[in-house]
């Protein structure tokens, strides 16, 4: 591993769940202070998350309760991105999402649907609901499936649960189609955050706990990808067959120490 | 040219019947087929109906068949569990549970996935996933993408198997069609090679691709789950006919040439 702080860092993307706080738990040690120190350093920071279980507003409010102090406009979750794609392409979705997240879709016409959008859900992933999505997709001349991320599983309060990626694979297999990913690791999703900072990819570091979607995804956009040993991290991730992180750190606080030292 | 007795493998649902209705002309076509000296076997990927239920339904529709001519994916699954002394966690329909009676279910070391809408819930899928990443085997009764219901197409077990495979990194053993083992077991009682066999079905992946890759001659029928252009979605070449009776007519023509 080379020193990932050697090339000047002009922008930082942070994953949220598993980097700032543990899913279903509390803020990760040192992360509140780490984010505050980054903001004070004036390096632009944006938060890139695949969280779709609630609205952006609710997510930011939760982070504020933990003690983080970012603004809502600096947080990039998939649903607002999805909404603008739907508007742009004049699409009306059948959605499998938690009701708590639907407010971010309020401007979207969901009647007489002509595409399917799936995101964070739990019991909504039932046979009957998935079958509805399937029946809609096979009835369309151009079946369109959007998946808000493509994670395999997550750990909530010590219990493993299948993530949206599994159900995306299920519908892809059933309909012989390929989903469009909105969220990490899609290039256009990362690019929206980069453009917002007006910094080129090679000057940006992405820090996350998902070796494939955060680290690998950022690297394939030309950023540096740094893996934290918190959240969904497992030691096997350090010898991942496809993704070699530019850096591996114990937690966000350690990454920020290194970034600030290199300034 | 082979003069061996030919074997004709026939899919059930969507090919000769749809639920309790005959696909028109199939009862007579089957009678015609039996006037030739051929072996007939009904190969089905059911995940929820025992052989007995299938037999009764077909007889009631008016088909003349022998109980032992039915070879189903459920039997194949039971055989596999028995052979490897497994303790199954069953995501299968209650109607099929009877076939799995007698197997130990505590501390499961395999997950069996069939088609059971009420069992393929978020909770059960998560439990299955947990077992898989702790070393359990994944057995798919079959991996069909969808099937034909009276209200249209509906998801088969395949998408749920795919979801579990993606999450866990464990590849499923498919015991039903299109696995080679399934087709070979179906013909093992007869003195014949795959090249002496015909397969007739409505599913290009389950029925046709699997049989064709073993060297069987295949017919896809445009009934049941068949969708326009399906034959172009697979690698193998297959003959395409409107319905079962047309496939039988062609087979009779073929055989009379030898």
TrEMBL record, chain A:
<dbReference type="GO" id="GO:0005829">
    <property type="term" value="C:cytosol"/>
</dbReference>
<keyword id="KW-0479">Metal-binding</keyword>
<keyword id="KW-0963">Cytoplasm</keyword>
<comment type="similarity">
    <text>Belongs to the HAD-like hydrolase superfamily.</text>
</comment>
<keyword id="KW-0460">Magnesium</keyword>
<comment type="function">
    <text>Phosphatase that hydrolyzes imidodiphosphate, 3-phosphohistidine and 6-phospholysine. Has broad substrate specificity and can also hydrolyze inorganic diphosphate, but with lower efficiency.</text>
</comment>
<dbReference type="InterPro" id="IPR023214">
    <property type="entry name" value="HAD_sf"/>
</dbReference>
<dbReference type="GO" id="GO:0005634">
    <property type="term" value="C:nucleus"/>
</dbReference>
<protein>
    <recommendedName>
        <fullName>Phospholysine phosphohistidine inorganic pyrophosphate phosphatase</fullName>
        <ecNumber>3.6.1.1</ecNumber>
    </recommendedName>
</protein>
<dbReference type="InterPro" id="IPR006355">
    <property type="entry name" value="LHPP/HDHD2"/>
</dbReference>
<keyword id="KW-0539">Nucleus</keyword>
<dbReference type="Pfam" id="PF13242">
    <property type="entry name" value="Hydrolase_like"/>
</dbReference>
<dbReference type="GO" id="GO:0016791">
    <property type="term" value="F:phosphatase activity"/>
</dbReference>
<keyword id="KW-0378">Hydrolase</keyword>
<dbReference type="InterPro" id="IPR006357">
    <property type="entry name" value="HAD-SF_hydro_IIA"/>
</dbReference>
<dbReference type="GO" id="GO:0046872">
    <property type="term" value="F:metal ion binding"/>
</dbReference>
<dbReference type="InterPro" id="IPR036412">
    <property type="entry name" value="HAD-like_sf"/>
</dbReference>
<dbReference type="GO" id="GO:0004427">
    <property type="term" value="F:inorganic diphosphate phosphatase activity"/>
</dbReference>
<dbReference type="Pfam" id="PF13344">
    <property type="entry name" value="Hydrolase_6"/>
</dbReference>
Automatic annotation (TrEMBL), chain B:
<dbReference type="InterPro" id="IPR006439">
    <property type="entry name" value="HAD-SF_hydro_IA"/>
</dbReference>
<dbReference type="GO" id="GO:0005737">
    <property type="term" value="C:cytoplasm"/>
</dbReference>
<dbReference type="Pfam" id="PF13242">
    <property type="entry name" value="Hydrolase_like"/>
</dbReference>
<keyword id="KW-0460">Magnesium</keyword>
<comment type="similarity">
    <text>Belongs to the HAD-like hydrolase superfamily.</text>
</comment>
<dbReference type="Pfam" id="PF13344">
    <property type="entry name" value="Hydrolase_6"/>
</dbReference>
<dbReference type="InterPro" id="IPR006357">
    <property type="entry name" value="HAD-SF_hydro_IIA"/>
</dbReference>
<dbReference type="InterPro" id="IPR006355">
    <property type="entry name" value="LHPP/HDHD2"/>
</dbReference>
<dbReference type="GO" id="GO:0046872">
    <property type="term" value="F:metal ion binding"/>
</dbReference>
<protein>
    <recommendedName>
        <fullName>Haloacid dehalogenase-like hydrolase domain-containing protein 2</fullName>
    </recommendedName>
</protein>
<dbReference type="InterPro" id="IPR023214">
    <property type="entry name" value="HAD_sf"/>
</dbReference>
<keyword id="KW-0479">Metal-binding</keyword>
<dbReference type="InterPro" id="IPR036412">
    <property type="entry name" value="HAD-like_sf"/>
</dbReference>
<dbReference type="GO" id="GO:0016791">
    <property type="term" value="F:phosphatase activity"/>
</dbReference>
């Amino acid at each position: 591993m080379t020193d990932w702080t050697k090339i000047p860092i002009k922008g930082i993307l942070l994953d949220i769940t598993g980097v700032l706080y543990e899913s279903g738990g509390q803020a990760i040690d040192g992360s509140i202070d780490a984010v505050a120190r980054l903001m004070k350093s004036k390096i632009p920071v944006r938060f890139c998350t695949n969280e779709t279980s609630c609205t952006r507003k609710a997510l930011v409010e939760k982070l504020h309760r933990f003690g983080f102090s970012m603004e809502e406009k600096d947080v990039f979750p998939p649903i607002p991105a999805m909404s603008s794609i739907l508007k742009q392409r004049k699409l009306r979705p059948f959605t499998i999402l938690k009701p708590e997240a639907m407010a971010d879709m309020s401007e979207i016409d969901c009647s007489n649907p002509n595409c399917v959008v799936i995101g964070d859900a739990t019991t909504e992933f039932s046979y009957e609901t998935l079958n509805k999505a399937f029946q809609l997709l096979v009835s369309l001349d151009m079946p369109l499936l959007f998946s808000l991320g493509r994670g395999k599983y997550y750990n909530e309060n010590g219990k493993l649960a299948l993530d949206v990626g599994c159900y995306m694979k299920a519908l892809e297999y059933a309909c012989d189609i390929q989903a469009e990913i909105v969220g990490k690791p899609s290039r256009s999703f990362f690019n929206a955050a980069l453009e917002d900072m007006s910094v080129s990819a090679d000057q940006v570091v992405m820090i996350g706990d998902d070796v494939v979607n955060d680290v690998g995804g950022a690297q394939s956009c030309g950023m540096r990808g740094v893996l934290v040993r918190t959240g969904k991290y497992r030691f096997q991730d350090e010898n991942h067959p496809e993704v070699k992180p530019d850096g591996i750190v114990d937690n966000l606080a350690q990454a920020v120490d290194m970034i600030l030292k290199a300034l | 040219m082979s003069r061996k007795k030919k074997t004709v493998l026939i899919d059930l649902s969507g090919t000769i019947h749809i639920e309790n209705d005959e696909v028109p002309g199939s009862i007579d076509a089957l009678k015609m087929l039996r006037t030739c000296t051929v072996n007939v076997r009904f190969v089905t990927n059911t995940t929820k109906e025992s052989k007995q239920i299938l037999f009764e339904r077909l007889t009631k529709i008016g088909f003349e068949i022998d109980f032992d001519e039915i070879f189903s994916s459920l039997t194949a699954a039971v055989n596999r569990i028995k052979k490897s002394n497994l303790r199954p966690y069953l995501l299968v329909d209650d109607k099929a549970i009877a076939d799995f009676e007698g197997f130990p279910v505590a501390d499961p070391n395999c997950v069996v996935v069939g088609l059971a809408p009420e069992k393929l819930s978020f909770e059960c899928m998560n439990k299955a996933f947990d077992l898989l990443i702790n070393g359990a085997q994944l057995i798919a009764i079959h991996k069909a993408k969808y099937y034909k219901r009276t209200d249209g197409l509906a998801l088969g077990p395949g998408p749920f198997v795919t979801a579990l495979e993606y999450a866990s990194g464990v590849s499923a053993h498919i015991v039903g069609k299109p696995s080679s083992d399934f087709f070979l077991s179906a013909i093992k009682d007869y003195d014949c090679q795959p090249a002496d066999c015909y397969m007739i079905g409505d599913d290009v992946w389950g029925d046709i691709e699997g049989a064709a890759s073993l060297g069987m001659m295949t017919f896809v029928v445009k009934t049941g789950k068949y969708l326009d252009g399906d034959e172009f979605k697979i690698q193998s070449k297959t003959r395409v006919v409107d319905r079962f009776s047309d496939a039988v007519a062609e087979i009779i023509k073929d055989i009379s040439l030898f």
